[in-house]
Every structure is written in structure tokens, then in C-alpha cells.
Amino acid sequence: MLSIYIKKRIYRKDPNFENLRIIGLAFAALGGTSFSGTNLSGATFAQATLKNSNFADSRQHSTILSRVRWHGAQQLDRARLGMANLQDPRVLKLLTTLDGIDQDFSNADLRGANLAGAELGQANLRGVNLNGALLKEANLHKANLTEANCIAADFTAAHLTGACLEAWNIDSTTTLQNIDCQHVFLREKPDARGDRERRPHNPNKDFQPGDFEKLFKEMIDTVQLLIRNGINPDSFKAAFQSIIQAHPGITTDSIQSFERQGDDILLTLKVPEGTNKADVERTWDEVYEARLAAATAAAQLEAEKRRGDDIKEVSLGFSRFLSSFQINNMNNPINTGDGSFYAGGDVNLTGSTLNLGTISGQVSNQINQIPAPIVADQPSLKDILTQLQTAVETDGELSDEEKAEALQAVGRIATAGAEPNPDAKAKGIVKRATDTLKGLAESLTDASKLAEACKTLLPTILSLFALI
Fold it and tell me: Which of 38, 154, 278, 423 could form an S-S bond across to 175 if both were Cys, CB 3.0 to 4.6 Å?
């Protein structure tokens, strides 16, 4: 009876029995067809029965499943699937049925997915990872692609009329050819006037063939940086100067606009063709967040006082700051997001800071971007960093300034962990962040929660990044 009960819970995909399901599939796959460690890029398993098949990585090689055609495949959920995204029931169902009409796929991992001809009308694809995905002739009518990552995705002949494309991430490797589109929206939610930034602006006008591609070719040459919960001026200056030093093609004239997105600010920069946008964003995040953490403790009281400042004060702050770069940009005015424009002037930005609660929220967001482990028995970096964050926030021996520094270190590790294959630079960031945590823990007693957490968790973190 116990076995029957467990079997039922596994078939119903009870999360409490997920590990047992994975173990069972591993044993069942021993007698099935094995594709372990094979490069299956572009292969098709349409209509195939895949029960007990093994697609997990081998000890020597990873199994490559980029743009594999799963449409109509039978019992794929009974196969051993190594890739983390294929463990998501939403993804598995979409890949086999190509039917995602009016469904929620927010933040799903669809990297390299073959969705050619998929029905995704009115689907919620907010924050979804579509890097390298194949979407030829896919129906994306009124789909929400807000903040979707679409690097190297192929949208040839896709249907995009009415889609929301706010802050979606595309570049020169994204294929936009023969797009079937009459109009799109660049804002997910309407502003105070009910405007969703329709393109074309005129509601009685539609795109002509080729217009969509021309519009977004200009957007491909931009980087959008989301600055959460307002601006810290010193952090802004330091981060922007770091970008200029690392990318000489970017100057103060590259600033296209500042736009308010709720409590956040969206900064748009024009960059030369071929610029590594990911490196621009990493440089910005690393420098901005580091400076922000250092400034937080020293200005806690002022931060609490200024938290209720409205966008007019933020806009005045922008204009005061921009003069320090001597921007004279009459031909390319800067949109502040509240309907006004600045074309340069004698201004200088004054301080605005964040409190510990805001920093903690940022770190939580960064941790949530970490994908699940590919190997079932591998420690979860997300869980480890969540424990570290809790230890920092509840440690009574740490001052507010030390907590801010420790939380920032946890955030830097989370940012590196969100990368599919962290490079040497990301590993260097992790090493420095763990050294920061070790340094803080050394001055604490053995009863400190952070000291205890560092002893047990930091070696695992370094191991996950192959640093020990």
C-alpha cells in the first residue's frame, strides 16, 4: 500500500516526491535508449515514444539539445531529462504540444527551444529566457514579451501584432525578418493617460512591410539599464565612468533617455554595433551596487527621509548631474519619463540613497535569477545564498554598515551564479565576495549566525564555481 501511495504521488508530480521520481527515472532509463553526452542540435523527435530514454549528461560530455523538435513526442515526462528547463512542466508541455495560447510562462527557461509554428497568442512570456530559441512563424499575437531575453533568437515570419515588447533584450544576432506585425506596444501597463506607447503612435495607422525591422534595428543598438528604487548620484557617476573607460565608444552623448518605470528608472544608452551588451550591464551592476552599499550606512537617516520623494525631484537630480559631464545635446534631448526633456544645462545631482530593506530586496531578486541545478543531487546555489542572506539580516553582532557590505557580497555571488557558464571574471567576483564575507566573519564570535554560516556554506560556494 505504501508503494501504491508513493507511485500515485509521483505520477501526480507532487513536489515532495520529486527526488524519488528522478531516482526512478534514472533506474528506468538503464534499459532504454541512451542519448547521454550526444550533440542533438536540430534533431527531431516528433511523434516519437520516449519512455525510459536517457538524455542526461554523461560523465565526459554534456547532452546538447539546442532547437530539438519535441512536437508530438510521447511520454517525454517519463524520460530522464538532464536539462533543468525540461524539468519545468510548463516547458515540457509547450515543447510537445506547441500550444501556449493564453498561458503563463513568466520567467521560464526556453533557451534553445524549437517553437517554430507555436501558438503563443496572448501568452505571458514576461522575463522568459528565449536566447537561441527558434520561433519561425510562431503566433505571438498580443503576447507579453516584457523583459524577455531574445539574444540569437530567430523570429523569421513570426506574428507579433499587438505584442508587448517593453525592455525586451535583443541584439544583432536576433533574427527579425519578414515579421508579420501591424502594431506593437512598448509599455506593459498604461501610464496615467492610458498610453501604452503604441508603435506606430497613430492608432489609425499600421506598420507597412519592413517597418517593424527598421524600428527595432535602432533599438538593437541600445542598452537599457534598470536602476531600482531611484538614483544614488555617487554610484551613478562611478558606474557611468567605468562604462566609458571599459567601452571607449560610449560617451555622455550615448545617453538616450531616462524613463520612470514605477519606482525604478530605465536608462537607455546607444552603443556601437558589436558592443558586448552583457559586459556593459555587468560593469554597471558591479560598480553601481558596490558604491551603493558603501554609501548606504552613512546616509540611513537621509534615506528614510527621502524615500517618499516624487519623480519631479528625481528629474531635477538628473539634470543637475548631467552638467557634470558637460552634455550639450540639443539634437538628442533626454527624456526624463515625466513628459519633460533636458537638453543640457548647469545642474548637479544631489544625494539619494537606499535603506537595508531595499538592499535586501535587491539581493533577493538577484538570488531568484539563479537557475535550478542541472544535476539533481548538486547543491542549490539559490538555497545556499538564501541561507547566507538570512544569516546576515538576523545577526545581532553586525552593524548596519557591515550588514550592507555582507548583503552586497551575497548579491555579487548571486549575479555570477545566474550566468549559465561563469567566466574567469565572474569567478573572480565570487572569490572577492567570499573573501569579504570571510573578513567580516573573522571579527565575530563563534555564536554569530554569519560566522557559523560562512564556515559551512562558503566552501560549498567555492566548490560550485570550481574555485577549490
Answer: 154
Phi-psi region of 284 (alpha: psi -120 to 50; beta: other; left: phi over 0): alpha
Whether the predicted model's global pTM rises above the 0.70 cut: no
φ/ψ bin of 229: left (φ > 0), alpha (ψ from -120 to 50), beta (otherwise): left
Residue 291 predicted with pLDDT over 50: yes
C-alpha cell at 246: 571599459
Q: How far apart are CA 154 and CA 306, in angstroms?
A: 45
Give per-residue pLDDT as tens, 147-191. 999 999 999 999 999 999 998 988 888 999 999 999 999 999 998
Residue 98 contacts residue 71 (beta carbons within 8 Å): yes
For residues 220 and 339, the answer to whether their CB atoms sit within 8 Å is no
Complete DSSP assignment for 413-448: HHHHHTSSS--HHHHHHHHHHHHHHHHHHHTS-TT-
Question: Mean pLDDT across the stretch 280-288?
Answer: 88
- Contact by Cβ (8 Å): 379, 371: no
The three-state secondary structure class of 115 is coil
